[in-house]
Amino acid sequence: MTDSRNRLGGVLIAVSAAAFVGLAGSASAQDLEPVSDLLADADPAQGETLTRQCAACHTFDEGGAHRVGPNLWDVVGRPKASQEGFNYSPAIQELGGDWTYEDLNAYLADPRGFAPGNRMAFAGVAALEDRAAVIAYLRSLSAEPAPLP
Ligand code: HEC
To answer: Is 73 inside any structural domain?
Structure first.
């Protein structure tokens, strides 16, 4: 009994610590499971299918136009709010740093919670496995995909 309680406590601490490292400042991120361990086995083709729900607002091809949202070619690892010619909200501009795997995980899980006041009117991708597939697809959209974590 004591044993299993300790094990459970360890898991909870590990998860919230991992989420916290990548996501300091986002209250909703504290319960979020990290995506990094799933990326190597995630299926980019499944991710591409899931991004149909993004395509009303985003293009994904190199040099593609901005729509309601910015073009997402090569977004993994690039500085946030850095696409030329797109008018980002202050909420996104003030986040700072690059789009790491875990920041994408948190933003796609809960766009409003991660960047309160940002203009992406999208509920988010609820399932961790689905976010892993979407992020694996985003990673593939690059001449030099970022290294896996
Ligand atoms: C209803 C329109 C809409 C949908 C649907 C949508 N987005 Fe967005 N997205 C936006 C807007 C608008 C922004 C810019 C937000 C701002 O500046 O506040 C944005 C920003 C982003 C950014 C930050 C890009 C950067 O250059 O910093 C990422 C990453 C992103 N969206 C991914 C996605 C993905 C992946 C999906 C689908 C799973 C999706 N979005 C669905 C409108 C949308």
So the answer is: yes
**Structural domains of the chain, count:** 1
Give the CATH number for residue 112. 1.10.760.10
pLDDT digits (tens, 9 = 90+) for 88-97: 999 999 999 9
Round to whole Å and give the CA distance between 3 and 50.
Answer: 40
Residue 133, classed as helix, strand or coil, is: helix
Express each pLDDT in 114-148 by its tens digit: 999 999 999 999 999 999 999 999 999 999 999 99
Torsion sign over Cα 41, 43, 44, 47: negative
Best mutation site among 57, 89, 140 for ligand 1, i.e. most ligand atoms within 8 A of its Cβ?
Answer: 57
Residue 87 in domain: yes
User: Which residue range is the domain that position 90 belongs to?
Assistant: 34-140
Task: Report the nearest-CA residue for atom 39 of ligand 1.
Answer: 54
Atom of ligand 1 nearest to the CA of 55: 5
The best mutation among 46, 49, 54 to test binding of ligand 1, ranked by most ligand atoms within 8 Å of the C-beta, falls on 54
